[in-house]
Structures are given as C-alpha cells and as structure tokens.
Amino acid sequence: MNVFDFIYKNAGECWLLTLEHIWIVSLALFLAILIGVPIGIAITRSEQAARRVINTANVLMTVPSIALFGILLPILSLINQGLGKVPAVIALVLYSQLPIIRNTYTAIKNVPPEIVDAGRGLGMSGWKRLKEIEIPLAVPVIIAGLRTAAVMNIGIAAIAAYIGAGGLGVLIQQGIARVYGEMIVAGAILVSLLAIFVDAGMALLERLLTPKGIKVGRELGR
Amino acid sequence: MKKAFGKAYRFVLVVILIIAGIALERFGVIQYLSDPYELHYLLDLLAQHVWMVFVSMLMATALGLSVGIIFSRPRYKKYSGIVMYIVGLGQTIPSLAVIALAMSFLGIGFKPAIFALFVYSVLPIARNTLAGITAVPGWIIDAAKGMGMPNARILFQIELPNAMKVIITGFRISLVINIGTAALAFLIGAGGLGELIFVGIDLMRPDQLLAGAIPVTLLALFADYLVELLGLVIVPRGLRIQEEIGK
Fold it and tell me: What topology is assigned to B35-246 in CATH?
C-alpha cells in the first residue's frame, strides 16, 4: 500500500477537497458565532434561561451526526435542499452551538465583578461595559469554545460526504465504495491532519488574543 | 417574567412534538413501522447496534479505567502528561477516519467495527479517570495515609469514589460518541441502525431513513439519561451534599 504515492499523484484533487472541507467548516463556524455568541451573552441575564438554553444545546449535541443528517434530509427536501452543502452547514451550526454558547456564558459570568464595577464607576454605559470590559476578557474562553467546535465540525463534515456535501470525506466514501485501500487511508490521514492542524492553530490564536492584562495577571499569580 | 418564559418554553415543546408527529405521519414512518416485516428488521438492527456498543464499551471501560489508574500512581505519574497529550491528539481524529482506518487494516465485518469503536471510546474514559484521580485533594489522601490505610485501600475507598463524578462524565461522553459512531459501522459491514439511514439516503426513502435516524437519536438520549441516573447512584452521598451546599 502506498498512500503517499496516491496523495502525490492526486495532489490537485486532494488539495481541492481539503479547501472544500475548510470552506464548509469555516462557513458553519462563522454562522455559528453569529448565532451562538449573542445567545451566550443574552442568557447571562437570566439563570433559568441559561439552564434551559444550555440543556437544549446539550440534547442537540447528543444526537448522532448521521442521524441528524437523516432527520434534516426529508425536512429540507421540501425546499429542494435535502442533499448537498446546505444540510451539512445547518447540522454543523447546530452542533457548534453548545461549545460556543456554553463558553461565552461561562466566560462572561466569570468576569470579576469588581472590574465591571470599576467600569460602572468610570461612567460606562451597559453596552460600553460589555464591549470594552466583558467581551475582551471573555475572548480567550470563547476562542477555546470555537476550537472545540472547529475540531468537532471537521469530523462531522467528513461524514457529510455521504449526503453529498463534498470535502475530504469523499475520499473515504469513494475509497470504501471501490475497496481502494490507498484512497481510504489518504482520506483518513488528510482529514486527521486537518483536525490536528486546526486544533494547534486555534490554540495559538487563543494565546495571541488573550489581553495583555490577563497574561500579566496570570504571571503575577504564579 | 420568569413564569412567562417557562410557559413559553413548555408551549414551544408541545408545538414541536405535535409538528414532529405530523411529520412522521406525512413522511410515512408510521406506515413503515406498522409493516411487521420491517419492524422485525428494525429490531434486529437495533439489537445489533446495542450489542456492538455494549461489547466495545465494556472493553473500553476496562482499559480506560486501568490506564487512568496506572498513570495516576506515583511511580508512573511522570508519564501522565505524555498520556494526556496522546489522548488529546487521538480525540481530534474524526470518527469516520478511525472507522475507515480500521477497515483498511482489518477488513470488513463486525470485528473491525468493534475494534474502531473500542479505540475511539477508550480516550475520554482514560482522560477523565486520570484527570479525576489527579484532582483528588492531597490532604484527603494524607488523612487516609495518617489513618494507616494501605495504598490499595486508598485507591478504592478514597481516590476512586472522589473521582467518580468526573469518571462518569467521561463514560457518558464516550457512550454517546460510541452510539453515534456505531451508526457509521454499517459502512464497514457491521450492520446496526446506520444501515437504515445510509440505505435510506441512497434510495431517497425518507420513511426508511427516519426509521433508522430516530431510534439512534432516542438510543443516544436514553443512554445519556441512564448514565446520569447511574451517576446519582454511584457518586458518594457526601460529595453530592457538598455540591448542594456549594450552590
């Protein structure tokens, strides 16, 4: 079995599939941030709402991915979008909600109240406190949530090849269908590498986006 | 305000249930399930699915617990960082990739599927066991030592019960992932409820597809709930009281 030979000979195809994979995942992640972060911030106002929203997101997360594709398929068929990228992106957005909402919520809740009080003392309005104090302090934790969501989404997007969404899952799907060992392993390796790289990249981003103040505080804490 | 929100929530739940019922009827799932032959087939696949999950989880729990316990012993503790790193790396690998790799090295059928599920389920259990035991406060262990407990008793009466909550969480994550991944096992010829879903997608038959997708979902939700109940029984009462006071 010569997997690297396969990847080398089909480099163009592999590259296109990788780009397609990244495109699906990043589109889903972008939409998930637009939905999840505001929800996460909104539910910090009411504990009951927070519990309900997080529980609902938790239940969504428990649904196996292929089953969710299956449930979405007949529903989206009503508007002629049962197969392809649309159900894949919707499923990915739904799965990303739990890590994003939970992390945003915890992060905003954990901003030390004395800092918020200091902001109030400076005469900042509610929005300004949120924009200039709470969100910057919460960013590293929110990014950690995004990291979990991104890695998970790469795995689920691979399964989405079976509903015709494209991406690196196609190599695995076609490989299994043709009993073509090199193709299967190439797909599996590429998708795993993608997940590992994205995980590492997001970890780096997390560190870069941590406000300087927090880093200094942590070092002093030690 | 709070009351209004709670009522709205309940209202939405009821509406969703009604819509789901109508949808099931319209997509022909009810008719599909009332065919005794199809129902029998579904139950067979369900049994296959549960058996696959049961066998792989049994093995994964045994290995995961022992790995977690071994690498939390003082003698091997220095390797625990490396183990955690490997486990973290393993968890980023997509489930479909694990299934596909198992197939290309072990062939098709029940055994490769069990192997893939087993490997994939060990990780969360091992990680949480290790993290749970490591997080047991040192002073509790010191107290146990002061009372003259031998190491084995410290492990079984102090460390494991105190870590139980974290271990159960790991078990739950692992079980839910396992049930979802077992649905992919059809692709390498191991059957299970994934068969209805994938064949349903290929034939564009919503009734068959939903007849597979809904039981898998219910199975995952039910397993999740069951483990949560199990947690209430297994986690020592003292810890639970502590938690309630903490609230």
Answer: MetI-like fold (1.10.3720)
